[in-house]
Amino acid sequence: MKKVFYLNTCDTCRKIIGQFNLKEWELREIKKEPITKEEVEAMYEHTKSYEDLFSKKSTQIKLREIDLKTLTEDDYKELLLDHYTFLKRPVFLTDKEIFIGSDKANVTSLKDYFRAD
């Protein structure tokens, strides 16, 4: 399994995705095709944390008046399944590894993965 979960309207996602040959990868635009419970659970198997998958920059946090300090792992999971903007993007998921978000360290690790592949 090789999947990339991204948002087409996100310039950062497009910039990161554009750096790699993704011919053998399934590209999932999460607004058009939301992530499933099974996919979120597969991501969790790598991270052991739903919070690590959660974007604390989502506009939905303010709109819904969510207090991040009170959220449990179950709350994070439910929110991830409820609205696409809660997923930290992009997510590159393989059977053995996961790369989450756009921070510099993650992108560097992703580049190393593609060089080794």
Automatic annotation (TrEMBL):
InterPro entries recorded: Arsenate_reductase-like, Thioredoxin-like_sf
UniProt lineage: Bacteria, Pseudomonadati, Bacteroidota, Flavobacteriia, Flavobacteriales
PANTHER family: ARSENATE REDUCTASE, PROTEIN YFFB
Species of the source: Chryseobacterium piscicola
Protein name (record): Arsenate reductase family protein
One Pfam family hit: ArsC
Residue intervals passing through the bilayer: none
Similarity comment: family membership: Belongs to the ArsC family.
